[in-house]
């Protein structure tokens, strides 16, 4: 019934909420310096674009549960902010990607690393804001509950989750890796990695990430590394297998195969990692290539390097 885009970055709990990617290459830095820049001058900040505001206001009248429905029913082809309505009638605003692989992807979440030194602290909504507590093996549980948080325009500056995460009936996902704090209008150009799936895999797991993580809970001590969730092949929209491999430090590159998105990976310490974005772990050291896992005190600190992951999903009726 919907096409959606999900943006996520983060993962689970117990021992330490560590962040994944070891070492980002110069590509992450270069993404902040593309031609033309993104610095908004004082004139742009103070000038009101009434035409744009009228366009955005006109989108409020649409009745749709996904960006794909807006694309199909109203022929909108412009990326940007739109209003969606849940099955129960709640209206919310999100970002629609109207061009990738035919368009109609709905942003449902973003995972933002606010501090690589503050693990399981305030702001770590996708793992735990309650500390490293072995009595709370699910952390805050936001991968598999109906809690929502954040603002879509701030999705690269803070964690974000909207009602589409659990309301949209989806079949595929699309993921963007965007440097932190980039404004929404530059997400596409600034992304160092963009990819999507195209095999309708979400239909096998309840139709969205909410139901997928109900089947594969992000919970400490849930099982061994052989109990990980699905690893789905991806299609690259920007970058490729080799550039994905180079996003990780040399010592981590033997731990994964690029060209996949993997859900609920588990490491040797029984820590569950929600997402391994762009890769499939080869063994049980998934903390080196996955998002926001809880690592043992002896594990090396992983470096997130200022990247937010945006994840979109595509309607199952598309």
TrEMBL record:
Give a single Pfam family match. Fibrinogen_C
Record's signal peptide: 1-20
Gene3D superfamilies in UniProt: Gamma Fibrinogen, chain A, domain 1 (3.90.215.10)
* Claim: Disulfide bond is one of the keywords in the record: yes
Give a yes or no for keyword Metal-binding in this entry: yes
The terms describing its cellular component in GO are: extracellular space
Superkingdom to which the source organism belongs: Eukaryota
InterPro entries named among the record's database cross-references: Fibrinogen-like_C (IPR036056), Fibrinogen_a/b/g_C_1 (IPR014716), Fibrinogen_a/b/g_C_dom (IPR002181)
- Enumerate the UniProt keywords alphabetically: Calcium, Disulfide bond, Lectin, Metal-binding, Signal
Q: Which residues form a coiled coil?
A: none
Domain Fibrinogen C-terminal residues, every copy: 58-108
| SUPFAM superfamilies, per database record | Fibrinogen C-terminal domain-like
MF-aspect GO terms? metal ion binding; oligosaccharide binding
| Family matches, as NCBIfam families | GGGWT_bact (NF040941)
Write down what this protein is called.
Intelectin 3
């Amino acid at each position: 019934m919907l096409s959606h885009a999900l943006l996520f970055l983060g993962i689970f709990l117990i021992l330490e909420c560590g962040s994944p990617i070891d070492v980002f290459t110069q590509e992450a830095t270069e993404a902040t310096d593309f031609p033309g820049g993104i610095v908004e001058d004082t004139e742009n900040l103070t000038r009101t674009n009434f035409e744009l505001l009228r366009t955005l206001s006109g989108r409020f009248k649409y009745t749709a549960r996904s960006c794909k429905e807006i694309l199909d029913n109203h022929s909108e082809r412009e990326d940007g902010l739109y209003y969606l309505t849940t099955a129960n009638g709640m209206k919310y605003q999100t970002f629609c990607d109207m061009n990738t692989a035919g368009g109609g992807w709905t942003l449902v979440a973003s995972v933002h690393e606010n501090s690589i030194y503050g693990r399981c602290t305030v702001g770590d909504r996708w793992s735990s804001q309650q500390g490293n507590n072995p009595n709370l093996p699910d952390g805050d549980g936001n991968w598999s509950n109906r809690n929502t948080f954040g603002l879509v325009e701030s999705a690269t500056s803070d964690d974000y989750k909207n009602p589409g995460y659990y309301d949209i009936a989806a079949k595929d996902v699309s993921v963007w890796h965007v440097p932190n704090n980039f404004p929404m209008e530059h997400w596409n150009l600034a992304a160092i990695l963009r990819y999507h799936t195209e095999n309708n895999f979400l239909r096998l797991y309840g139709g969205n990430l909410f139901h997928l993580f109900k089947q594969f809970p992000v919970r400490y001590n849930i099982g061994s590394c052989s109990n990980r969730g699905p690893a789905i092949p991806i299609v690259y929209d920007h970058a490729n297998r080799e550039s994905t491999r180079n996003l990780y430090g040399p010592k981590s590159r033997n731990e994964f195969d690029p060209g996949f998105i993997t859900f609920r990976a588990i490491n040797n310490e029984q820590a569950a990692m929600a997402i391994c974005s762009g890769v499939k772990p080869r063994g049980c050291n998934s903390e080196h290539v996955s998002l926001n896992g809880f690592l043992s005190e002896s594990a090396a600190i992983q470096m997130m390097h200022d990247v937010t992951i945006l994840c979109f999903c595509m309607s199952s009726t598309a």
